[in-house]
Specification:
The complex is a heterotrimer of chains A (341), B (246) and C (297).
Chain A (H helix, E strand, L loop, with lengths): L5 E4 L2 E4 L1 H29 L4 H26 L7 H17 L3 H23 L4 H20 L17 E3 L4 E3 L3 H23 L2 H12 L10 H21 L1 H5 L9 H14 L5 H20 L3 H15 L3 H18 L1
Antiparallel strand pairs in A: 1-2, 3-4
Helix pairs in contact in A: 1-6, 1-11, 1-13, 2-6, 2-7, 2-8, 2-10, 2-11, 3-4, 3-5, 3-8, 4-8, 7-8, 10-11, 10-13, 11-12
Chain B lengths: L4 E10 L2 E11 L4 E5 L6 H9 L6 E6 L2 E2 L5 H6 L2 E3 L12 H9 L16 H14 L14 H13 L5 E5 L7 H14 L4 E5 L3 H7 L2 E6 L2 E6 L1 H6 L1 H8 L3
Helix pairs in contact in B: 3-4, 3-5
Chain C lengths: L1 H39 L6 H17 L4 H27 L5 H24 L13 E4 L2 E4 H23 L1 H11 L1 H6 L4 H27 L5 H16 L4 H21 L5 H15 L12
Antiparallel strand pairs in C: 1-2
Helix pairs in contact in C: 1-5, 1-8, 1-9, 1-10, 2-3, 2-4, 2-8, 2-9, 3-8, 5-6, 6-8, 9-10, 9-11, 10-11
């Protein structure tokens, strides 16, 4: 019998700490969704467009941060080039949408392409770990970014513009991609679904192998699992998450550009995860929102907001290594633990 | 009876040094075979060769009648080999429960691999069995890194045993243990041998003589001699290897 | 035949000398990086930014009249206390955490970001270029070579040789190597390990700063110069072997020559992919690099 936090082992209840931690993240994400819905309602009531679209963009990049956390927080791999898949998803989505303005067609294409590319690149990247892995992922993103930058067919340095407005058809209701609140909720839905799938997978025996990789990679083969295959699987999942998030970008902005693949995009995602909380999944979402707010607020006060964020990042790494969720989660875990007894 | 594990002329060299040189022996079912030898004899390297961590330059490793020479560690594990480590190699940041559950989840059918861990009945049942056998009730929810040394060494054995291997390789399981803990562990190992074959590296001669069914003596990478405990104990060559004189 | 000679004289040789000049500077940067990694087990993602700081300080001091020759001495000296402070104040704080490699990576990555932004704030985002200290060119065997590049090659090589001698043949070098090998043992032998580590880091960073001074007149100075350079530096360290001085030298010279010669045949757009390709090839075939030992990261 298992409700996710307490396991019956020989009819004695045992607290499954990893299960509780994941449930605490779920609680935080539910709160996040509620907050998002309230935000959308208020925004609509006030006729706002700007903040809703800013929030949508924050969510899209939060999806990229989510993919970073899957690798860093659970598998123990620091990728400095996740923007490769984010940008790949954005470009594929833009190209598809310009031919077939269908949300589902774009998403399906991105899913397929990211699976293939993620697998191929993963074969290269996962031959190494640690800083070598970080550098290879960095290099991969740089090379592809420069390649796109120099490819006229893809718009070169200007990128691709003229992505049409897309109807998102759910059967019962259709949301247009230029509807501020509507598309915000669609994005929220997509990102939360990506979160839910990731969270689910990490609570399965498969996910526990990934967590074991981070905890002590050397022991994992002796559990009967190939570390190469496990890391490759995590890498592909992260690639798909990043790509599907990126696929939403041209729907929101109407264009894509090579900046999406540059190191600053990857770096921002890492900063988001670290500040939000590594290894919590929820940290990616909250971190994304917090960082966007910070950038706007500090950015309105001074042009040099990046240095403030950089300093904040360093402070978090030194003094608050578990990030903001690291402060919030234990309280919730305690509540859940008490409930379960 | 076919031996559970057969090692034939196994050897590996690291840049000119023959760490293991032409070693052959067999581990009989449900027996405790102990490898002994002075420091640097190549015992841990031998374990690394058998468990797949290092590829041998020569010789063969035959597990359960099947030639598994050079197989990677995860394939050896799936073939029925369990291994503990001389330097405790647990998942220190995970709880005792999770350490055991991770090790036991191999017992589950593949279709449960992508189902929530709560559905892994067999693994959970095995965890329960292990907790009872190894007396880990009190610390079940604690992080493995917070356990005492003796408790960690016991957990180390439990993790190796969790997936019900046909042969258990124990690398100095009593390393660093107190006298009382050592005696308890020796009894535990003898008890385990009723259901699983055991290959043991051990330095404590008392334990070795007490529980071993068969002893293999290694010296400078080679097998010096092997036999029943009483025979090995009286062998002047063995004394010479350890003490430099007969 | 004359065509080949002319090709060598007017195209190949100057290109190789250019590559060599860049190579020596890359070696200086990679040397600092590999010493910091090999001896301190720290991945310094901000190393490129220290290279940029050296260039900017030289630019600023040079603009206010300090002679280039003085800069060659002053700038590294200025970098030393900066590096020391960074190591003692920041890196040592996270050195004893379990996830050390990832944490120092993240921390130095953040530091690099902050330094880059700081440079942008102080000096502005535009590219600037200090004047060439030794203008002009001379003719060597019919090949026209810029004097400054030759100077760079000679001075750089001398510095690299000096570093190798200090590390491998002096008592100071032995102390550093001992502390790197086993810090507890070295500490119990009376070696001030914390100071040694901080000093080594400072030294590595000073080398990067010196490279910045030397290369500034050729490649210009701009806030993101560090980030562009760091990938090349890390590739050199990986190919040469993390922690190997000989490796950094050989790999640094080799890779820059490959870059220089390849740009004669293919468009410069291919420069990055080629360097990356070399890195991936080495990581796949021989992960410990040409001279390195596996085990870190």
């Amino acid at each position: 019998m298992h409700d996710g936090s307490v396991v019956q082992v020989k009819s004695r209840p045992v607290i499954d700490r990893l299960g509780i931690a994941m449930r605490a993240s779920h609680v935080l994400v539910v709160l996040f969704v509620i907050g998002g819905i309230v935000f959308a309602a208020i925004g609509t009531a006030m006729g706002d467009t700007f903040f809703l679209r800013l929030a949508t963009e924050a969510l899209i990049f939060a999806g990229l941060a989510l993919s970073v956390d899957i690798l860093l927080g659970y598998t123990g791999l620091l990728s400095l080039g996740q923007a490769l898949y984010f940008g790949l998803g954005a470009y594929v989505s833009a190209v598809v949408l310009k031919q077939i303005p269908s949300f589902w067609a774009a998403m399906a294409a991105v899913l397929l392409v990211s699976l293939v590319v993620g697998f191929a690149a993963g074969l290269i990247a996962n031959r190494v770990r640690g800083v070598y892995f970080a550098l290879v992922t960095f290099g991969l993103a740089q090379v592809v970014a420069k390649a796109i930058y120099n490819t006229r067919a893809l718009g070169a340095s200007d990128g691709l513009i003229g992505v049409p407005i897309v109807p998102v058809d759910f059967g019962v209701v259709t949301v247009m991609s230029n509807a501020p609140a509507g598309f915000f909720l669609v994005t929220l839905g997509v990102i939360v679904i990506l979160y839910a799938i990731s969270g689910y997978l990490l609570d399965t025996p498969f996910g526990r192998v990934l967590i074991a990789l981070r905890a002590n990679e050397r022991r994992v083969p002796f559990l009967g699992y190939s570390t190469r295959n496990a890391r490759l699987a995590a890498y592909v999942i992260a690639a798909v998450v990043a790509a599907l998030s990126g696929a939403l970008y041209p729907m929101l902005r109407g264009f894509v550009s090579p900046e999406l693949l540059f190191f600053s995009t990857s770096g921002n995602a890492v900063i988001t995860v670290v500040i939000g909380g590594v290894g919590t999944l929820a940290g990616a979402l909250y971190g994304g929102v917090i960082l966007t707010v910070l950038k706007s607020v500090v950015g309105s006060m001074t042009e040099n907001h990046l240095i403030v964020i950089g300093l904040l990042f360093m402070a978090v790494v030194i003094f608050l290594p578990k990030g903001l969720m690291g402060l919030a989660r234990p309280q919730i875990e305690r509540l859940l633990g008490r409930e379960a007894r | 009876m076919t031996p559970v594990l057969e090692v034939n002329n196994l050897g590996v060299a690291f840049g000119g040094i023959r760490a293991v040189d032409g070693v052959s022996f067999a581990a009989e079912p449900n027996a405790i075979t102990t490898i002994i030898g002075p420091n640097g004899a190549g015992k841990s390297t031998l374990f690394n060769l058998i468990s797949g961590l290092i590829r041998p330059n020569s010789g063969r490793v035959i597990l359960g009648g099947v030639d598994r020479t050079g197989a990677a560690p995860h394939l050896m594990q799936r073939a029925g080999l369990g291994r503990s480590f001389q330097i405790t190699n647990l998942f220190f940041e995970l709880t005792v429960f999770e350490n055991l559950r991770l090790a036991a989840q191999r017992l589950e059918p593949m279709r449960r691999f992508l189902l929530p861990t709560g559905k892994s009945d067999r693994a959970l049942a095995q965890v329960g069995t292990l907790i009872d056998r190894f007396g880990l009730h009190a610390k079940i929810g604690e992080l493995a890194g917070t356990l005492s040394h003796g408790e960690q060494r016991r957990l180390e054995i439990a993790v190796a045993l969790a997936a019900k291997p046909s042969i258990l390789l124990l690398d100095e399981p009593t390393q660093g243990m107190s006298h009382a803990d050592t005696a308890d562990t020796a009894n535990l190992i003898r008890d385990l041998a009723r259901n699983v074959t055991i290959l043991l590296i051990e330095h404590d001669i008392g334990v070795v003589m007490d529980i071993s069914d068969h002893i293999v003596v290694m010296h400078q990478g080679k097998k010096l001699t092997e036999g029943a405990p009483s025979v090995v104990r009286a062998d002047p060559a063995v004394k010479s290897a350890y003490f430099g004189h007969a | 035949m004359t065509e080949l000679l002319e090709y060598i004289q007017f195209v190949l040789a100057p290109q190789m000398i250019t590559g060599l000049a860049l190579g020596i500077a890359v070696v200086l940067v990679a040397l600092g990086l590999t010493i910091i990694f090999g001896l301190l087990d720290v991945i310094n993602m901000a190393h490129g930014e220290f290279y940029a700081v050296g260039a900017y300080v030289a630019l600023a001091l040079g603009a206010s009249g300090v002679s280039f020759w003085l800069l060659l001495v002053i700038v590294p000296l200025i970098m030393v206390p900066i590096g020391y402070a960074v190591e003692r104040g920041l890196i040592q704080r996270v050195f004893n955490t379990p996830d050390r490699h990832v944490t120092t990576l993240l921390l130095t990555f953040g530091l690099g970001l902050v330094i880059e932004e700081a440079l942008k704030i102080v000096f502005g985002p535009n590219t600037q270029r200090p004047p060439t200290p030794i203008p002009g060119a001379i003719e060597v065997m019919g090949v026209i070579l810029p004097i400054y590049r030759l100077f760079l090659i000679v001075v750089g090589a001398a510095i690299v040789a000096a570093v190798a001698i200090v590390i491998n043949m002096t008592r100071l070098g032995a102390i550093v190597r001992a502390a790197a090998f086993d810090r507890n043992m070295a500490a119990s032998l009376g070696v001030p390990v914390k100071q040694v580590f901080a000093g080594t880091f400072a030294f590595g960073v000073a080398l990067a700063g010196l490279a910045g001074v030397l290369l500034a007149p050729i490649y210009s100075v701009f806030p993101t110069m560090g980030r562009d350079f760091i990938f090349l530096a890390f590739t050199v360290v990986i190919v040469g072997g993390m922690g190997s001085i000989a490796g950094a030298v050989v790999a640094g010279l080799l890779i820059t020559q490959v870059q220089a010669l390849s740009s004669l045949v293919v468009s410069p757009v291919w420069s990055d992919p080629i360097v990356f390709g070399i890195m991936v090839l080495v990581l796949v075939i021989r992960p410990q690099g040409l001279f390195g030992r596996l085990g870190h990261a």
